[in-house]
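In practice, a research group might receive sequence data for several interacting partners and want a quick structural hypothesis before committing to experiments. The following worked case mirrors that situation: the sequences arrive first, and a predicted assembly follows.
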Amino acid sequence: MDIADWRRKIDEIDRKLVELLNQRAQAAQEIGRLKRNTKMPIYEPDRERAVFDNVRQVSQGPLPERDLTQIYERIMDVMRKIQKEEIVPQAKSRTAADTELDSDVND
Amino acid sequence: MDIADWRRKIDEIDRKLVELLNQRAQAAQEIGRLKRNTKMPIYEPDRERAVFDNVRQVSQGPLPERDLTQIYERIMDVMRKIQKEEIVPQAKSRTAADTELDSDVND
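A structural hypothesis for the assembly, expressed as tokens:
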């Protein structure tokens, strides 16, 4: 395979990655909706740890664990924000409640 | 579906995401190997732009474009580093050549 072939393969992989990232975002939204107006604890550190454990365990490489973790930290940042928007849909600007949620939302 | 169901779905999505990220890393390595010892230009800004265009065009949501771009910026950072390691495999410490490559490697 030459470089053009590998790039076509990357474009194909990217299409699948984008589809999965959107599916993940939808799941984060659904969890946010289920949490809305409940008394459920929002902050669940064990869940975030379980996500990272799952990701590391299933990885067969060649992506080094450190790099995979870096990518997942960004994915989790985004998903946390998406879920927060479902839990606090009225939050259009920064409020005290909003700030408090920042570090407390898991997916 | 309750929260536990959605989390099982997320774990399943994550397994597929990890597999695809590893496939993408392998493709970046292969391109790095093909570029090694050639006179091919390493810096190809059009390619990076094409990757982002592809990703945005195929996205059906609900992930906002801004968030998708943020995730992809991290993916591209990691892939650029992985490719550089293949092009300059002997680079174990920071050298002038190494520094020069930093902003010049595309996948």
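Before designing any experiment, note the following. Chain B is about 70% helix and 0% strand. The first helix of chain B runs from residue 3 to 35.
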